[in-house]
Amino acid sequence: MDALAQDAVQALMAEGESDNTVRSYQAALRYWAAWFAMRYHRSIEMPVPTAAVVQFVVDHAQRKTDSGLSCELPREIDEALVARGFKARLGPPSLATLLHRLSVLSKAHQLHRLANPCQDVAVRELVSKTRRAYAKRGVAPDRKPALTREPLEALLQTCDDSLRGVRDRALLLFAWASGGRRRSEVADARMENLTRVGPAAFVYRLHRSKTDQSGSAAAQADKPVVGMAGVALAAWLARSGVVDGPVFRRVLRGEKLSSSGLASAAVRKIVKERAALAGLADGFSAHSLRSGFVTEAARQNVPMAETMEMTGHASVASVVGYFRTAAAVSSRAAKLLERLDDEPSARASDQP
């Protein structure tokens, strides 16, 4: 391809990715470049040698030693990475961060059609064993706590009658009740995709999501916003006067409304601030709305297919874990002793 065509390809690739994904890729590649330069005293080039990828894993993955857990990243390099802003704090990253950085490097090689060191047998075996080592230590993937019905109601109680309070109540209920929308989907919600079907009932057409990047799943795109969520959304639209553009806007000083929509980070901030006001434990984030919807659906015995229709999950495996957790808590088999205690006469009659 000529230079113009190549530029067009790169522009389309960039436009097709979400802003959050692009930022995470950029941060991971900046880290790779900084680590490589400090480790090998030269600039990184692709394809990255397999030996360097192996070194990256052992530099960042913790292993057991006689003195406890340790990794091979030299202290001076660790301090330099923190000082220059490539790391937030000293010490090894989480397993999830390590795997993400390997995945980004692998993706970069794939896009450039280069020999991929991350697919080398030695690297794949090392990563597999590293995963198992972490699992044996009881290190589980970091999951944000779920905003099920009770904690969600606690958040809603912090929303007063101010413009910001009315907005936050509508936003939380819209995100939760329409299927646990992702923060980017909430931030991107626009009036053009919202149809009022009753005084306090709406249908929101989700044109694009994480699992439907092309917006092709039209049959599953319509998400109901009814009940409490519909009432809250109607109140927000009436109070704010929003008729086009972004549904959820920034609220400025003096209860003035911005013409620009919220950023994805603002959705996360709203959840965290409301959780703090409600006195809930740390850890809740925007994703807690999504996991909370799925978990609550499982608790209330909503069929998995119906739940996935709302959430837009493409994989049953992504949803089944929440259903199993909810089922474990409510399992009748786990309460056999309690059932006996509730039936003393039946227990007495069984005695010889």
Automatic annotation (TrEMBL):
<dbReference type="Pfam" id="PF00589">
    <property type="entry name" value="Phage_integrase"/>
</dbReference>
<dbReference type="GO" id="GO:0003677">
    <property type="term" value="F:DNA binding"/>
</dbReference>
<keyword id="KW-0159">Chromosome partition</keyword>
<feature type="domain" description="Tyr recombinase">
    <location>
        <begin position="142"/>
        <end position="336"/>
    </location>
</feature>
<keyword id="KW-0238">DNA-binding</keyword>
<dbReference type="GO" id="GO:0007059">
    <property type="term" value="P:chromosome segregation"/>
</dbReference>
<dbReference type="InterPro" id="IPR002104">
    <property type="entry name" value="Integrase_catalytic"/>
</dbReference>
<dbReference type="InterPro" id="IPR013762">
    <property type="entry name" value="Integrase-like_cat_sf"/>
</dbReference>
<protein>
    <submittedName>
        <fullName>Integrase family protein</fullName>
    </submittedName>
</protein>
<keyword id="KW-0233">DNA recombination</keyword>
<dbReference type="GO" id="GO:0015074">
    <property type="term" value="P:DNA integration"/>
</dbReference>
<keyword id="KW-0229">DNA integration</keyword>
<dbReference type="InterPro" id="IPR011010">
    <property type="entry name" value="DNA_brk_join_enz"/>
</dbReference>
<dbReference type="GO" id="GO:0006310">
    <property type="term" value="P:DNA recombination"/>
</dbReference>
<dbReference type="InterPro" id="IPR050090">
    <property type="entry name" value="Tyrosine_recombinase_XerCD"/>
</dbReference>
<dbReference type="InterPro" id="IPR010998">
    <property type="entry name" value="Integrase_recombinase_N"/>
</dbReference>
